[in-house]
Amino acid sequence: MTPSETVQTFVDHWNSGDMEAMYDMCADDITWHNMPMEPVTGVSAVRDAVSGFMGPVDRCEWEIHTIATNGNSVLTERTDAFILSDGRRAALPVMGTFEINGDGKIAEWRDYFDMATFQREFGGG
Questions:
Q1: CA 53: distance to chain centroid?
Q2: Which of 12, 57, 76, 95 is deepest in the core (most CB within 10 A)?
Q3: pLDDT digit string (tens) for 4-41?
Q4: Which residues, at least 6 apart from 91, have a Cβ–Cβ distance to it below 8 Å?
């Protein structure tokens, strides 16, 4: 799989709700950094962070608008939409950077987004 295909498949797993397949695409020592927040390192920490976040989320509808690859680095412009358990749809514009290691796993994942938009979308205000 090319680095671009790896990221597209990773997003597909989010959208299908196949979180175990998503975690399997991550290197054991992955670092996930949502830039307004503190980074987490390791699949276990990513799993904990996702579990804490996904409580009010029924499903994901992430859409990649643009994807660019330079070697093992993949840049995405996305809208990460979440259908919440109360029926609302929270959508967040995101720029994401993924670094794919030699084993074809995601080793670094950085997402850049506006925290005020995140709070407004998830807070319902």
A1: 12
A2: 76
A3: 999 999 999 999 999 999 999 999 999 999 998 999 99
A4: 79, 80, 81, 82, 121
Give the strand pairing for 40-41 and 26-34: antiparallel
Spatial neighbors of 114 by CB under 8 A, at least 6 apart, are 36, 92, 93
Please say whether the dihedral angle defined by the alpha carbons of residues 112, 67, 62 and 103, taken in this order, is positive or negative: negative
SS (H, E, C) 71-125: CCEEEEEEEEEEEECCCCEEEEEEEEEEEECCCCCEEEEEEECCHHHHHHHHHCC
Contact 5, 72 (CB under 8 A): no
3-state class of 56 per DSSP?
Answer: coil
3-state helix, strand, coil in the chain (%, to 5): 35, 45, 20
Give CA–CA dist 60/38, Å, rounded: 22
Q: In this predicted model, what pLDDT tens digit does every residue of 42-57 receive, in sequence order?
A: 999 999 999 887 778 8
